[in-house]
Each structure stands twice: as C-alpha cells, then as structure tokens.
Amino acid sequence: MENPVYVVAVRALCEFAAKVGDLDHRFTPGPSAAEGVAGHAAVAMRRGPNAENEVSLSGEHGPLRVRGRADGYDPDRQRLEEVKTYRGDLAAMPANHRALHWAQAKVYGALLCRERKLERLTVALVYHDVGTLHDTVMSEKHSAADLDAFFVGLCERFMAWARQELVHRTARDAALTALAFPHGDFRPGQRQLAEAVYKAAGAGRCLAAQAPTGIGKTLGTVFPMLKACPTQRLDKVFFLAAKTPGRGLALEALHTVVKSEGGQPLRVLELAARDKTCEHPGKACHGDSCPLARGFYDRLPEARSAAVAAGFLDRATLRTVAATHGVCPYYLGQEMVRWADVVVGDYNYFFDLAAMLHGLTLANGWRVGLLVDEAHNLLERARKMYSATLAQVQLDAARRIAPEPLKKPLERLHRAWVQLNGECPSAFEVFDELPQRWFGALANAIDAMASFLGDHPDQVPPDLLRFYFDLLHFARVSDRFGTHSQFDITVEEHGHRKRSVLCLRNVVPAPFLRQRFDAAHTTTLFSATLSPRAFYGDTLGLPTDTRWIDVDSPFTRDQLAVHVTPHISTRHADRPASVAPIAELIARQYRERPGNYLAFFSSFEYLNQVMARLQADAPDLPVWAQSRAMDEGARADFLARFVPQGRGIGFAVLGGAFAEGVDLPGDRLIGAFIATLGLPQVNPVNETLRERLEASFGDGYAYAYLYPGLQKVVQAAGRVIRTPADQGVVHLIDDRFTRRQVRELLPGWWPVARPVRSRPPPEPVQEDPA
C-alpha cells in the first residue's frame, strides 16, 4: 500500500465521488448555526447512556487518508448516526441530497468498523426538524465488508485526482521555494513589509502593517505569503479585498508572479458575487428552472478538470470554462475553491456569518494564510455583516401577497410588531433585551413559511421569498446577540400609521472576527491607515500577540505640500459661509498650478454647492462630479478624465468610490482639497454607538467619530503621491486640522503646515463633530 500522504475530509470525498444529478437549492436555506447545534444536542440526549458523541475517525486507502467526525455512536445498539437538521418538508429533499447523506454515513461506518474491528453495523440517518423538534430516522444494517467495499469504491474514484493533486502540490511547493521577486528589486519600504509578512507566517502570528500608498503593498504581501507556503505547509492563501479595485490589484500581482521565470504551477481563483456571475437572472437554482443547474454534477467532473488545466481562473476565464461545459459559473467557482492555491475575493467570503471560505477551512482542516487588503475597511464591513435590519413596511407588503396559509402567522407577527411600536416613547429606542413576544412571532412565521415552501416551492412570489430570507437572516443574527450588539427601533410616521425599522446592530465585531483569525495559520492586515493601534486592536479583536509595524515611507517631505486653513469651518452650521471661501481657494490653487485635482466633501449637497459657486466665479475651469449611485461605467468615465498633463477638478464625496483604491500617478493627479474631517454625522444611532464604545474602551468620541473620520481623510489625501517621482499639494480645509490631537493622526512624513496661530485655541475636543 502506498504511503497515505493526501488528506481528504469525509464530506469532500463524498461530494467529489458520490454527488450526481441536478444542482438544486429548493431545500435550502437550512437552520441557523445555533439551531443546528441545538438540534444535534437534542438528538445526542436521546442516545443510550454509553453513547459517544462527535467520534473522530480516520482511515487509509492507497495514498489517501480520509478523516472526519461522526455525529454519534451507540455501542449498545451498534448504531452509528449521521444527523442532519432541516426546516420544511423532508419529502421535498432532492434525491441526490439524500444519496450524499447516505454516502457520508456509510463512509463513517466503514471507518468505525475498521477501527473497532466490528463485523456488522447499523447505519442511521437522523433528520431533526428544528421547527417541530421531531426526528425522522432511516436506518440500514450492513456488514463491515459491504461498508468497506463502498468506502474503497469512493476512494478508487477519487484516487486519480488525488495523485494529480499530490503531483501539483509537490511542483507548486518546489516552484515557490525557488521563486524570486518578479521585479528584481523591491521598492523602498516594500522589502520591510515583505520580510514582516514572511516572519509572521513563520511564527504563525497575526501581522498588522501600516504602509504608505504607492509602495506596492499588494505584491509586497502576496509574494512573501506564497514563499511561506512550502515552509509552513500552507494549503491555501486567501486574499480578501473590500472593493473590486482591490481584487483587480491582487489578480494583477498574482499574474505577475505566475508569469515570472517562464511560468509557475500556481492555481489562482477569483470569486465574484452570484448576481454578477449568473447567466440566467430570474431563474431559480434547480434543474426544473435553470439549464445550467440541470445535470450540473454529471457535467462537473469534466468542467473541474478543464478549470484545473486553465490554472489562472479570473472571472472571465471561469465563465468561459463553465460555458464550454454547460455548468453554472458561480457554483463552478465554489467547487474550485477546493483545488485552488490562491483565492481572491471579498471580505464576506471569510468573515461573514455563513462565510464559505471559513466553513471549508474548518471542515477540511486547511492551513490558511490570510491577506486582508485595505484593512481599515474591515470594521465597518464587519459591523454590517453581523447586523440585520427589518422594516415593517416589508411585512405590510408580504401580508398583501401571501398565500392564504401564511396570512395567519404573518398577522400574528404584525400584531406583535404593533405592540412593540407602542413600547417606544421616542422615535429611536434601544432595548436592553430582545422582545421575546415579537421574536416568538418571528419564529412562528419562519416555520410556517419554511413548511409552505417545502410543500409549494413554485407558489411563492419572489418578493415574498426575499422577505423570508430577510426573516431568516434576522433570526440568525439574533442567535448571536450579546454585549457586542444592540437591538434598536426607529419609528417613523407613514400617513396616519406608525411604522418602524428594527435593527440588530453590531457595535464591536471583535468577538466574531477573533474566531476567524483563530481559524487561519497566519493573517496579515495591511493598509495606509491602521492607527491608532489600540483602536483597531480593540474593535477588530486582533490577537494579543499581533505584531504591528509602520513601514517606512519612500516619500519625502519636499514631495508634498500640505496646507491647513484655520479660518474656514466645515461644521454643518457653518457650511453656507464656507462655500465661497472654498471655491476661491480651489480657483486660486488651480491658477497657480494648473493640472488635475480632486476635491472631497462630506456630502453630495455640500459638493454641489461649492461646485456651483466655482462654476459661477470661474466658468473657465473644467469640472466634473461624482453622482449618487454611479455604476461601474460611470465611475470609469469619471476616472478617465484624469489623463497625463490633463487639467480640471473632479468633485467627490469623502469615503466614496474615489477616496481610496484609486491610482493616479504622476501628473494624472497633482493635488487634493479635503473640505471635511470626515466625522460621522451626529444622530441618535452614532450617539448610542459613542456611549457603548465609551463604556467598553474609554474614549467613545475618538472611537465613534475622530478615528474613523481622519482615516478617510488620510486615504483621500493618499491619492496624490503614488511614486517617489510625484509632486503634489493637499489642502486640509477646516480649522480643526490645527489641533494637535488631529495632527497626530496624520502620516508622520507629511510636512503639515502650521496655521497662523502657533497654538490651537483651548476648545473642548468632544464637541458636536458634524
């Protein structure tokens, strides 16, 4: 027998070798994680006194080592159980789902018989309905020989693929060991960053790297993480980006690596959202509706082999492979995660509550290296991931279109909601505890809708289905409610009726993110703005042994002129008086040095006011502006006007699409005007956030307002100097930029001009920050 050197999880083996037929998601979504845990616990309590739970098993065949964890084994009855929790009608479960469950149960049975020298075994599937708490048990009696033959048959089907993967892994690791930096030499600061990433991977630690824009952070992190793969036995590298431009830069860097030295045996996969990859919008993901779902698993083996042969699977290549073999590109991408070396995708693929990459990492025991791009965005993105919102007007619409069997549970939810509104003395209320009556009505509505969906999958209007998914998400977030979150209600007048919006609002995502960092062997978070350290460490839940570095800037003070305007206030009350002075400042700077500039403002309204005044005072100056809800084409047109030796002023909103992730080197951009501190608006929600952060960390104003605002300012200003040859100017327009507490949050290499007064006035820092 060959040495077992290829490790595969039981579920992965069964999905590869035993899954056939249609792609079918009519029986999903399933229970929440909390419901699943509770369901498994309920089943475990019904087993005999000598029963074992969560039984670790492994076995070998040829080069394979198969491992997993069986849900339960009762030695008194010689019965092994595979437990599946579900909602709805069990009869509606697709046949290939059931076949996969039997395959998993029988493989666990074979492994148990081998380990404990059993001659016979009862294998049982236990389906636990989380709504009714009822168990449906299906059992089969097998000889150990029959179970072993089944196990060997699956392994034999997987064997050729496993040998191919072993050859690939050996070649990949050898190539990465010999890999040289593709540009010959590092940029200033880039080597320091790369060395820190490599050392953190070697120590299995987390690294938080603050590195200036323009040094090549993407390649400076990708290259050392790839170099660490052979020495640290990393199975995967996940490059996680906040926005589309970040994914593009990562793919560009990886393409450079793959093409270096005549080509590298590296498999790269780009993941994109379903709505951007779906070939048949409006069709459901099952064989009766979508032609790409029909027979998906029958065509998957050839598509999978073609995708592996392609190697570099960006979105376009993946779509071509999928089209050639008649399969869904979105689900082909999900399949290829298992066989890729590097996966590039959005934050949500690893950090979301139901994140696919995180789930696969745990299920398969992968050693993973995480690269988190523009990590200053992770705080707000994570807060949204672990929050949920539900509007009462959604329920109103659902009640109007609901089939008759669903009207009663939705009416009950409506009555509970009306009562909840009556408990709100003001327009915004925060509750210390979850309202149990309302959540009881929510659970009842979910169970009723799940049951109806199971019986009548094609009789649910799309809007009602979307509402069902929103209810499920709200319930799942409520399962994780704790001190890191709050439950609040915003009541609004709709005609003569009160209608409210309920929010399970995450305040500190640290407890959730900490679990994700723990799942990775090493994590590097990098950004131009990761200070103060305590702020990001506290809110993101970084490990206590995280290594922090400030990468030396390759830029010099004489490259950037920074001007502060102590005589202009951009506070909300002062904005009307600030419009003319700001327009005059922009015109004066442009006349002194014509070229391309960006002007950033706190809102579209403010932006339009200043642009209109500038056009009236200086009609000869070319201007263009960001607008609300720009699509990708409009954003590209906006940036296309920043040509070399061009002239004009682009007006944009701070924190928007053009305030970060935009690379305009040389004279494509020679200056920026920032007419705001970027502080979040003062409103009941943010004031509650400030109070909660004050209680947790001691400086609620800085954590809720100042630090997030200045991070946006630094990011926007970072668009100006991108290379050591660039020259530019930044105007910081607000009197509060003169304060020491604010100036200390600006990059150390900036030559921040002193204001007219040598000292800022002794104003209290914690004032109305609007």
Task: Write a brief structural summary.
With 770 residues, the protein is an alpha/beta fold. The protein contains 26 helices and 24 strands. Strand 15 and strand 16 form a beta hairpin.
Helix share, percent: 40-55%
What is the count of distinct domains?
4
Number of strands: 24
CATH topology of the largest domain: Rossmann fold
Q: Strand content of the residues, in percent? A: 15-25%
Please give the order of strands in the largest beta sheet: 10-9-11-8-12-17-7-18
The CATH H-level homologous superfamily of the largest domain: P-loop containing nucleotide triphosphate hydrolases
Please give the count of helices: 26
- CATH architecture classification name of the largest domain: 3-Layer(aba) Sandwich
Contiguous runs where pLDDT drops below 50 for at least 5 residues:
753-770
Averaging pLDDT over every residue, what do you get?
92
Radius of gyration: 29 Å
SS-derived structural category: alpha/beta
Biggest sheet: strands, sense, closure?
8 strands, parallel
Shape: globular
Distance between the termini: 72 Å
Description of the molecule:
The longest helix is centred in the N-terminal third of the chain and has 35 residues, at 144-178. Mean pLDDT is 92; it is low at 753-770. This protein has an 8-stranded parallel beta sheet, with helices on both faces. Strands 1, 2, 3, 4, 5 and 6 form a 6-stranded mixed beta sheet that branches. It folds into 4 domains: 6-159, Lambda Exonuclease, Chain A, CATH 3.90.320.10; 190-260 and 341-386 and 509-551, 3-Layer(aba) Sandwich (Rossmann fold); 394-506, no CATH class; 557-743, P-loop containing nucleotide triphosphate hydrolases (Rossmann fold, 3-Layer(aba) Sandwich). It is α/β, with parallel strands linked by helices and 770 residues long. A hairpin with a 5-residue loop joins strand 5 (120-129) and strand 6. It is globular, with a radius of gyration of 29 Å. The chain has 26 helices and 24 strands. Helix content is 45%, strand content 19%. Pfam families: DEAD_2, Helicase_C_2.
